Amino acid sequence: MGEPDPADLSAFRKDLLAVVPNLRAFAMSLIGSADRADDLVQETLMKAWAKQSSFERGTNLKAWLFTILRNEFYTQMRKKGREVSDADGIHAARMAGHPEQMGHLDLQDFRKALELLPADQKEAIILVGGSGFSYEEAAEICNCAIGTIKSRVSRARTRLAELMSVEAEDEFGPDAVTRQIMTGSSRSNM
């Protein structure tokens, strides 16, 4: 195999950098610590750069990177032997929040409820609801069937609504992304 084309390297680099904010948000949702999330994103980018020859041009780079990040996260968790518990919400409180406004308390409640979900449901709702992946893409990232992802998202939405005592969409804060997670409605207004 010859030297990579400089134009291809430049395009790949540009495409990688465009996904960094999404990767960081996903890493933050998994870890809850900005420093550790940044380390996870950096490790993901290094692995992606080293394995760029295995990336198939024309396929979904974002999904490929999310898969690398997710796999690296679980590898790190296995090495540690246990997850960090966040019973008092300290890690969740460190996550970036929306500006102080009426929905701030709803957002805190949402984060607390999100932390109470089983890991598989939390991951699915973040991928589909928070990161905008389709069910198919999320299933590919999680290496499971589409129906499994749909079931996890459905159970997560139901459980979040129960935990937050939400009975109708308009009872929850003004955040459109959060509303989309709770209801599964279209993101066309975003």
TrEMBL record:
<dbReference type="Pfam" id="PF04542">
    <property type="entry name" value="Sigma70_r2"/>
</dbReference>
<dbReference type="GO" id="GO:0016987">
    <property type="term" value="F:sigma factor activity"/>
</dbReference>
<feature type="domain" description="RNA polymerase sigma-70 region 2">
    <location>
        <begin position="20"/>
        <end position="82"/>
    </location>
</feature>
<dbReference type="Pfam" id="PF08281">
    <property type="entry name" value="Sigma70_r4_2"/>
</dbReference>
<dbReference type="InterPro" id="IPR014284">
    <property type="entry name" value="RNA_pol_sigma-70_dom"/>
</dbReference>
<dbReference type="InterPro" id="IPR000838">
    <property type="entry name" value="RNA_pol_sigma70_ECF_CS"/>
</dbReference>
<dbReference type="InterPro" id="IPR013324">
    <property type="entry name" value="RNA_pol_sigma_r3/r4-like"/>
</dbReference>
<feature type="domain" description="RNA polymerase sigma factor 70 region 4 type 2">
    <location>
        <begin position="108"/>
        <end position="160"/>
    </location>
</feature>
<dbReference type="InterPro" id="IPR013249">
    <property type="entry name" value="RNA_pol_sigma70_r4_t2"/>
</dbReference>
<dbReference type="GO" id="GO:0006352">
    <property type="term" value="P:DNA-templated transcription initiation"/>
</dbReference>
<dbReference type="InterPro" id="IPR007627">
    <property type="entry name" value="RNA_pol_sigma70_r2"/>
</dbReference>
<comment type="similarity">
    <text>Belongs to the sigma-70 factor family. ECF subfamily.</text>
</comment>
<keyword id="KW-0238">DNA-binding</keyword>
<keyword id="KW-0731">Sigma factor</keyword>
<dbReference type="InterPro" id="IPR036388">
    <property type="entry name" value="WH-like_DNA-bd_sf"/>
</dbReference>
<dbReference type="GO" id="GO:0003677">
    <property type="term" value="F:DNA binding"/>
</dbReference>
<protein>
    <recommendedName>
        <fullName>RNA polymerase sigma factor</fullName>
    </recommendedName>
</protein>
<dbReference type="InterPro" id="IPR039425">
    <property type="entry name" value="RNA_pol_sigma-70-like"/>
</dbReference>
<keyword id="KW-0804">Transcription</keyword>
<dbReference type="InterPro" id="IPR013325">
    <property type="entry name" value="RNA_pol_sigma_r2"/>
</dbReference>
<keyword id="KW-0805">Transcription regulation</keyword>
